[in-house]
Design a protein that fits this description.
Order of helices and strands: HEEEEEEEEEEEHEEEEEE
Structural class: mainly beta
Number of strands: 17
Number of helices: 2
Helix content: under 10%
Distance between the termini: 74 Å
Strand content: over 45%
Largest sheet: 15 strands, antiparallel
Oligomer: single chain
Length: 271
């Protein structure tokens, strides 16, 4: 009886002890070392209450290492609003652009992204993405289960379906959506961490998005004058270069975005 009591006491002590080992995952971006997740979906660090519905427009400019800046034709638009999905309150984010030829000004196509998440936790529900060549990708989420549908640009291209489980709940970082999630953080200088992100394949079902709030500075907020903004840095999803976002206190859109590299890309808010 005494041995049983000792075993039960040991079991409860071990069960109550905090787990010190954190899950290590590949980090989004090229040549990034694996690192431990520091945020969990639903732990309150990313809070949908910090997201404000809005409409906005950006203008892109490229800065090559050699030569003059290239002001691209056309603009990017973003819309975030509340909606309902099967009785569930959601946030819907849509962003896209019509792409024109730089010298011919002919319409080359369009790029579009739509993401639907839970309005409170920002847990993913589904997202759809269309590239300039006409290829599409749709992700459907059910807890930790992910179903990806990809269709090529040619007429008659078949729908290729991939399914996998992330193991732990994760956010949908597919498409140009980094600042949407960063605004949902309790921003302050020095805040950093690694956010769980849905992977792309069964071989890599879970990844991490690294971020750090590096400073606070004044920046021009479109037609609204100068405002104070948090400067948040992360890693470009497809490169080793830094991506940088200027995010205000009052609105959840990025006032400015910079993608370092050659050419450096800058997206400045117009409205």
């Amino acid at each position: 009886m005494q041995k049983l009591s000792i075993r039960l006491l040991a079991f409860f002590l071990l069960s109550a002890a905090p787990v010190s080992a954190q899950q290590t995952v590949p980090i989004v971006g090229l040549n990034q070392p694996d690192a431990a997740l520091t945020i969990k979906l639903g732990d309150g660090m990313l809070d949908g209450k910090r997201i404000t519905p809005h409409e906005m427009v950006w203008h892109p400019t490229f800065y090559p290492a050699k030569g003059d800046p290239i002001s691209l034709s056309g603009v990017w638009t973003e819309d975030v609003h509340y909606g309902e999905e099967n009785g569930r309150k959601v946030l819907v984010r849509s962003v896209g652009a019509i792409v024109y030829g730089q010298t011919s000004y002919q319409i080359r196509g369009f790029i579009a992204h739509v993401t639907v998440v839970d309005a409170a936790t920002l847990a993913p529900i589904w997202s759809e993405h269309r590239d300039i060549d006409g290829s599409t990708e749709k992700l459907v989420f059910n807890g930790t289960h992910v179903e990806i549908h990809k269709t090529g640009p040619k007429p008659g291209d078949k729908d290729v379906v991939t399914e996998f489980d992330t193991g732990v709940p994760a956010y949908d970082f597919t498409g140009p959506i980094f600042p949407f999630y960063f605004k949902a953080l309790p921003l302050k200088v020095g805040l950093s961490g690694i956010i769980p992100a849905v992977g792309e394949t069964p071989e890599q079902p879970l990844r991490g998005v690294k971020f750090k709030v590096v400073r606070r500075e004044k920046i021009k907020d479109g037609s609204h004058g100068m405002v104070d903004a948090w400067v948040v840095e992360s890693v470009h999803p497809e490169q080793t270069d830094t991506i940088r976002f200027w995010i205000s206190d009052t609105e959840s859109y990025p006032i400015r975005m910079e993608l370092m590299g050659d050419p450096r890309e800058s997206y400045d808010m117009l409205n």
